[in-house]
Amino acid sequence: MPHSFQTDDLRLGPIHDKVLAGERLNSDDGLVLYATGDILAVGWLANLVRERLHGDKAYFNVNRHINPTNVCVAACRLCAFGRKKDAAGAYTMALEEAFETAASGYSEAVTEFHIVGGLHPDLPFQYFLDLISGLKQRFPQVHLKAFTMVEVAYLAKRAKLFADRIRHMICDHKIDGSEWLSTAKLAHQIGLKSNATMLYGHIENDEDRLDHLLKLRALQDETNGFQTFIPLAFHPEHTALAHLPKTTGMLDIKQIAVSRLLLDNFPHIKAYWQMMTPKIAQIALRFGADDVDGTVVEEKIYHDAGATTPQGMQRKDLVRLIREAGREPIERDTLYRPVARTETSFTVSV
Ligand code: SF4
Q: CA spacing 20 to 30 A to 181: which of 1, 124, 162, 344?
């Protein structure tokens, strides 16, 4: 039997009753959850919802990141990865280089390539078509989880793929929140699944975070196309906001728990170990998270912003991290189907 709910914070009583009854929480409830110091009570509630959905299962995958270019026309103040074309450290992989990168890393067969890059002003659209088809030809079993909504919108605009009605919504460089939601909606309408993130711990406040969560929840009510929500702790080093402090463990844990409680229509909440550190990600598995992400192999984006975590993790270390949190490790593919593997190959249960 789980221990009973206890709190000295009377404001949490009505939220406890709603969660037990399976009722949806609102923005005021969210403000209370952010404001309370009783992280254990918030965690108790988030864990209840997490175990209702997934029991003891905790998901991970064997994946590899590929960042084909860090050249970017945008200059987001939160980013230490993007570079102008002629800046020191700017790179763009030739296609062969991208294919070699994809093949390098640990010996276990990966089930997913996670492909993200900058908004390159000159790379032809054909480069991306060749990248995707070349990877698929060489690694037919690997799922290509490619591009953020921002990249999709930028590429579509440059390749003039969208009708004017859609294109006029897309600004020159980076899209705003409503354009992001429109792009995600379009992706879901054509049958793609996607994930959603939120970078927190910079200049935003509790209201801003709730606004972000509730907008995602509303779109998910419409499309049911999101699989996972991933809160991303802001890493300030080498960004234009380098004077800001890093997030604390308490905020990282609380953000996981609040996300699980507010996003009642998202199947999965991920504690991305690269962002939170493996130790905090492990604790998060008891505070609402059911996924820790994967082996990654080579992480550039947060390491450019001063992350001190390893660039990748072996499968066996992820399994240990999950087991020691008292959860059952389940290797999944990109679509959360269970993966069974031998030393050198894998099969996905469909
Ligand atoms: S966050 Fe993305 S769009 Fe913004 S500068 Fe960095 S790479 Fe470019």
A: 124
Alpha carbons 294 and 228: distance in angstroms, whole number: 14
Query: For ligand 1, is residue 99 a contact (CB within 6 Å)?
Result: no
Q: What is the token pair recorded at 27? A: 């923005």
Does the pTM exceed 0.85? yes
Structure-block tokens of residue 278: 């493996």
Select from 77, 120, 152, 174 the residue to mutate for testing ligand 1; criterion: most ligand atoms less than 8 Å from CB. 174
Half-sphere exposure of 4 (CA within 13 A, CB side): 1
Q: 150 CB less than 6 Å from ligand 1?
A: yes
Q: What is the pairing mode between strands 328-331 and 63-66?
A: unpaired
Q: How many CA atoms lie within 13 A of 182 on its CB side?
A: 14
Q: Please report how the helices 27-35 and 12-21 are oriented relative to each other, as an axis angle in degrees rounded to 10.
A: 120
Cβ neighbours of 48 (radius 10 Å): 17
Does any ligand 1 atom lie closer than 6 A to the CB of residue 72? yes
What would the pLDDT profile of 193-251 be if each residue is shown by its tens digit?
999 999 999 989 999 999 999 999 999 999 999 999 999 999 999 999 999 999 999 99
